[in-house]
Amino acid sequence: MIKTKFPISRMRRLRYTPLIRSLVKETQLSINDLIYPIFVKEGIIEPEPIAAMPGQFRLSLDDLIKECEQVISLGIPAIILFGIPSEKDSNGSLASDPDGIVQLAVKVIKQRFGDQLLVITDLCLCQYTDHGHCGIIQDNQILNGPTLKRMQEIAVSHANAGTDMIAPSSMMDGQVQALRKALDDNKFEIVSIMAYSAKFSSNFYGPFRDAASSAPSFGDRKSYQMDYSNGNEAIREVLLDINEGADIIMVKPALAYLDLVYKIKKKFGFPTAVYNVSGEYSMIKAAAEKGWINEKGVVLESLLSMKRAGADMILTYFAKEVGQWLKEK
Ligand code: PBG
């Protein structure tokens, strides 16, 4: 251990000027790290503002194209798509429809932009089921096996539409293995999987459920999403997903879970994503609207701390604003 101390050691020497500070900067936030979540909705013609998420909209396919043009021009490498169907039923039938909103969205984006934009599709049932749970239900229980089967059908439909990457978020056991198998059996070996591995049953998802009309109609998600008291369990979840064939693992939400991001990155050295979720977005937006915080400063500091903790990439609703700010710099 180095033993020099004051006055030989003066930490402030490396803080005196902007240039020296930039020279010793340990962590950088880059536009290359960001993934922008986009909501596409069936049957609308105008963008629909999402009340609890100022600056975010549900988009039609036409507006989605315009949005992607903007995303690409800002240098954002990837988007993750969430679909909002026009009808819901107990099986979430529209989730695997070849003409479903997400499948059509992927097709039009790929047709127009090809490899200029990486397209990730969120894979879950909750936006598509009339009960709002992330799986198939019997007697108010969420069934694991039948849900995996549905997820396989959905994954293949996304892959047929041309998605680059699938992001299963329903927290069923064995979901990564089931999807890897379904993709490989259908010759989609190169479609990758970003697993929502350590996804907690979190209060921070509130605004998203409003955005995607996906709140459960009864009970909660605690029989499948994780208890936020549990860190060791998060590590087991990640280990299982790596062994099942995940290409990227994720911790979600981000800010209140950076201890786990740090541990997981250190332990596995695996490509690691964090999801800066809707509640984290809306809190900053609300405080900034009131003039209580400096939005740009707080956003850049929050996202940088996620990288410092070990995240390689960040799913964030702030991606476009950050793109703008990084350009101005
Ligand atoms: C669907 C899903 C949710 C989020 C991403 N995928 C909501 C949930 O689990 O209830 C949350 C994203 C956010 O809050 O920004 N399972």
From TrEMBL:
InterPro entries: ALAD, ALAD_AS, Aldolase_TIM. Keywords: Heme biosynthesis, Lyase, Porphyrin biosynthesis. The keyword Ribosomal protein does not apply. Coiled coil: none annotated. The keyword Lyase applies. GO terms for cellular component: cytosol. Signal peptide: none annotated. Transmembrane segments: none annotated. It catalyses: 2 5-aminolevulinate = porphobilinogen + 2 H2O + H(+). GO terms for biological process: protoporphyrinogen IX biosynthetic process. GO terms for molecular function: porphobilinogen synthase activity; zinc ion binding. Pathway: Porphyrin-containing compound metabolism; protoporphyrin-IX biosynthesis; coproporphyrinogen-III from 5-aminolevulinate: step 1/4. Its EC number is 4.2.1.24. Belongs to the ALAD family. NCBIfam families: PRK09283.1. PANTHER family: DELTA-AMINOLEVULINIC ACID DEHYDRATASE. This is Delta-aminolevulinic acid dehydratase. It comes from marine sediment metagenome.
